[in-house]
């Protein structure tokens, strides 16, 4: 029982405790928000945080603390911080950690732990969280003495935000949080003999790339999530424009280029643009920048290198050659590598290639438009493709769009019009329920930007408890729930591959969203047909406060 | 294909688990594993013998290099290294087979390090193949216990690249 936590003496008499040191270290890392959920094993931390300006955001379930920190990190460019308790608090956050790991999001997760002397004895609320998270954290620490705290926090932030970014776990036993720390010294720099990420690209490889580029006729650049993570969007754009090289992107690369840019040909992959995939297939040289070449974007990674030169740029050497063996591997930070690229000159022009691509794009877009117009006429409910399209062009130019997982994600990727905004989604892990908590984090990271979360009714029911967090902290996230009363993407899968034997995909019993909105004191808009789409979207987006929109679509819609 | 990984790691708790995890996540069997401190007390050396296809072995090497507790990874094939294994075997002997056993020990360079009325313990240190060969000679003997260290290996001097860290 929680008898274990009975305090011996008043530890608050101590000048500086481990918990104080943790909080002070976070302050020195310029942490604005911690997302989390308290419990007995993390109480000293949540006590110490009252003495600072760091704001603690109470989520309603621990997984969402990690998603909120994820959204915060992606919009602020800083490290997201989540703080939860031991045992179930820590195991609940695992999915959030794995989601961040799959998308290389910089994050520090602090978990409370039972008393050091009791660790390993299966006492109340004990879980071996560092062991459990081993395969999806970049690194983890168990703190054994309070004096180590400043060094560990400094290292954790450095590791999370450098090289290939990712989540770092710090497990802190409750007695260490209460222990006196003799002198607080925050290290100026980090020295780890085992960790020196490569930043600069190898000059020989870069030269080789340009020599191959000068021979190429149909080059293409594929923009991955790494371009966003290294803050290289402008440099990559400059590269595309300077050398007039057409580009496509992966799901995680969405947002780097405007949709109507004459050198941009959309997202590739299973659910990507036909002309984007066509461009990849027809090319004779592919530059993969910060992308994994994984199954979702490239159907047969090992075939990609046939008849073409593959150049793979990634900060993580282990990604290069994992799925496809490149001719030119280039390890380095995307921003630094493209800065080097932009200093080079290239004589040949790819005008003909670009003309062919644009012709193809136009043909396919026009054919697609016809299909949509036809669909719009026939539809009795809302047409999802058109809805996403109009939503994204009506949103503020710099708005944040958070897509959940399911059919809504694929419609979003295909129809979201990229301008100057950001597009967030759980690309690697595909975690349902990501959108609302990530949108909360994004909104806190920059309250001036409009934030819209789009999810299906399945994913929404996995995260709708966070409406309370939005209410409590006055976070004006706008939420669209595409409601079809089924788990659309799985149902679609069952339609195609299981001969319409629909199994466990009916969401009968889902709540009335108008009542949900009312229960959380939120504005509510219901959209049930295409005719009122524009008017409903205008009302939805003009609201300053949080608003929930129900968008009714047919369960038979296919992506 | 057998591959030997000689891995220098931080001498901390939990590191063995992280390294082993990289193998089992990919359903790779570790044929043998030997861990010990190096001349620097803060550094341990792990010698891991594993088998698998070239591509996966290369991926494991890259993933090992990525782990923050790992200082240096060197991999080589069995032939490129000096490999040794220590084995202790406890057997139950009889008057009939005692002489044969002692003779085999002498031929193979094994030593009897403990002797009782019906049991003896033999120690042998040699290449993994010769250790295997010796154990084969004991096939018809009643073996009660075997302890093997796993392969220890070091790259042959002749295989060292001149430009390698020296």
Shape assignment of chain B? elongated
Summarize the biggest pleated sheet of chain A. Answer: 6 strands, parallel
Count of individual helical segments of chain B: 4
| Radius of gyration based on Cα positions of chain B | 19 Å
- Report the average pLDDT across residues of chain A: 94
Count helical runs of chain A.
Answer: 22
Question: Can you describe this structure?
Answer:
The complex is a heterodimer of chains A (559) and B (166). With 559 residues, chain A is α/β, with parallel strands linked by helices. Chain A has 22 helices and 18 strands. Chain A folds into 3 domains: 2-178, Rossmann fold (3-Layer(aba) Sandwich), CATH 3.40.50.970; 203-355, TPP-binding domain (Rossmann fold); 379-552, Rossmann fold (3-Layer(aba) Sandwich). Chain A has helices spanning 18-28, 43-48, 62-76, 88-92, 94-102, 129-132, 149-161, 174-178, 203-215, 225-229, 233-243, 274-282, 334-342, 351-378, 384-394, 407-415, 435-445, 457-463, 467-473, 488-497, 513-519, 533-542; strands at 33-37, 55-58, 80-84, 107-113, 139-142, 167-173, 219-223, 247-249, 264-267, 285-289, 309-314, 328-331, 400-403, 422-424, 451-456, 478-483, 523-527, 547-552. Chain A has a 6-stranded parallel beta sheet, sandwiched between helices. In chain A, helix 7 (149-161) links the parallel strand 5 and strand 6. In chain A, helix 3 (62-76) packs parallel to helix 5 (94-102). The model of chain A has no long low-confidence stretch (mean pLDDT 94). The two termini of chain B are 29 Å apart. The mean pLDDT of chain B is 90. Chain B folds into 2 domains: 2-76, 2-Layer Sandwich (Alpha-Beta Plaits), CATH 3.30.70; 84-150, Alpha-Beta Plaits, CATH 3.30.70. Classes of the chains: A alpha/beta (559), B alpha+beta (166). Chains A and B meet through loops of A and helix 1 and helix 2 of B.
């Amino acid at each position: 029982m929680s008898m274990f936590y009975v305090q011996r003496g008043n530890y608050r008499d101590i000048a500086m405790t481990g918990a104080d040191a943790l909080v002070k270290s976070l302050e020195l890392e310029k942490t604005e928000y911690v997302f989390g959920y308290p419990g007995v094993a993390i109480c000293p931390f949540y006590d110490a945080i009252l003495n600072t300006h760091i704001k603690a955001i109470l989520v309603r379930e621990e997984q969402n603390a990690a998603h909120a920190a994820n959204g915060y990190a992606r919009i602020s460019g800083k490290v997201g911080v989540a703080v939860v308790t031991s045992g179930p608090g820590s195991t609940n956050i695992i999915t959030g950690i794995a989601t961040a790991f799959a998308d290389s999001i910089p994050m520090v997760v602090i978990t409370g732990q039972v008393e050091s002397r009791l660790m390993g004895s299966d006492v109340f609320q004990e879980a071996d969280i560092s062991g459990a998270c081993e395969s999806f954290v970049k690194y983890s620490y168990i703190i054994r003495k309070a004096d180590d705290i400043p060094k560990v926090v400094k290292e954790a932030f450095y590791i999370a935000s450098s090289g290939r970014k990712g989540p770092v776990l710090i497990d802190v036993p409750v007695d260490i949080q209460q222990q006196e720390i003799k002198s607080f010294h925050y290290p100026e720099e980090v020295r780890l003999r085992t960790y020196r990420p490569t930043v600069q690209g190898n000059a020989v490889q870069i030269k080789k790339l340009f020599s191959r580029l000068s021979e190429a006729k149909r080059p293409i650049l594929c923009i991955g999530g790494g371009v966003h993570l290294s803050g290289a969007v402008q440099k990559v754009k400059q590269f595309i424009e300077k050398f007039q090289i057409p580009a496509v992107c992966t799901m995680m690369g969405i947002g780097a280029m405007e949709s109507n840019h004459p050198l941009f040909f959309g997202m590739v992959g299973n659910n990507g643009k036909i002309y984007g995939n066509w461009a990849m297939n027809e090319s004779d040289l592919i530059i993969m920048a910060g992308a994994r070449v994984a199954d979702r974007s490239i159907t047969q990674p090992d075939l990609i290198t046939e008849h073409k030169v593959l150049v793979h740029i990634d900060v993580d050497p282990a990604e290069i050659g994992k799925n496809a063996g490149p001719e030119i591997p280039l390890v380095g930070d995307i921003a630094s590598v493209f800065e080097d690229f932009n200093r080079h000159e290239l004589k040949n022009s790819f005008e003909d290639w670009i003309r062919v691509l644009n012709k193809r794009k136009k043909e396919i877009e026009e054919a697609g438009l016809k299909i949509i117009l036809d669909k719009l006429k026939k539809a009795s409910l809302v047409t999802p493709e058109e809805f996403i399209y109009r939503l994204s062009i009506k949103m503020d130019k710099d708005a944040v769009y958070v897509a959940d997982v399911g059919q809504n994600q694929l419609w979003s990727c295909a129809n979201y019009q990229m301008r100057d905004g950001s597009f967030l989604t759980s690309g690697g892990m595909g975690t349902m329920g990501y959108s609302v908590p990530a949108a909360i984090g994004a909104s806190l990271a920059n309250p001036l930007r409009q934030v819209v979360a789009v999810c299906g009714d399945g994913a929404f029911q996995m995260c709708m408890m966070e409406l309370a967090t939005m209410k409590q902290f006055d976070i004006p996230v706008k939420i669209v729930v595409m409601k079809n009363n089924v788990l659309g993407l799985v149902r679609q899968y069952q339609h195609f591959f299981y001969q319409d034997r629909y199994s466990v995909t009916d969401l009968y019993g889902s709540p009335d969203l108008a009542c949900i909105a009312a229960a959380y004191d939120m504005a509510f808009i219901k959209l049930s047909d295409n005719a009122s789409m524009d008017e409903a979207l205008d009302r939805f987006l003009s609201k300053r406060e949080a608003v929930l929109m129900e968008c009714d679509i047919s369960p038979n819609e296919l992506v | 294909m057998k591959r030997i990984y000689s891995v220098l790691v931080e001498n901390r708790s939990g590191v063995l688990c992280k390294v082993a995890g990289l193998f089992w996540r990919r359903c790779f069997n570790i044929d043998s594993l030997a861990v010990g401190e190096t001349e620097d007390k803060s550094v341990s050396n792990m010698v891991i013998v594993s088998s698998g296809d070239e591509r996966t072995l290369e991926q494991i090497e890259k993933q090992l290099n990525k782990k923050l507790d790992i200082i240096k990874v060197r991999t080589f094939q069995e032939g490129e290294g000096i490999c040794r294994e220590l084995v202790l075997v406890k057997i139950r002997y009889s008057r009939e087979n005692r002489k044969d056993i002692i003779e085999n020990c002498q031929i193979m360079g094994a030593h009897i390090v403990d002797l009782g009325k019906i049991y003896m313990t033999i120690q042998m240190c040699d290449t993994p193949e010769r250790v295997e060969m010796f154990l084969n000679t004991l096939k018809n003997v009643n073996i009660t216990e075997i302890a093997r260290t796993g392969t220890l290996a070091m790259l042959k001097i002749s295989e060292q690249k001149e430009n390698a860290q020296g």
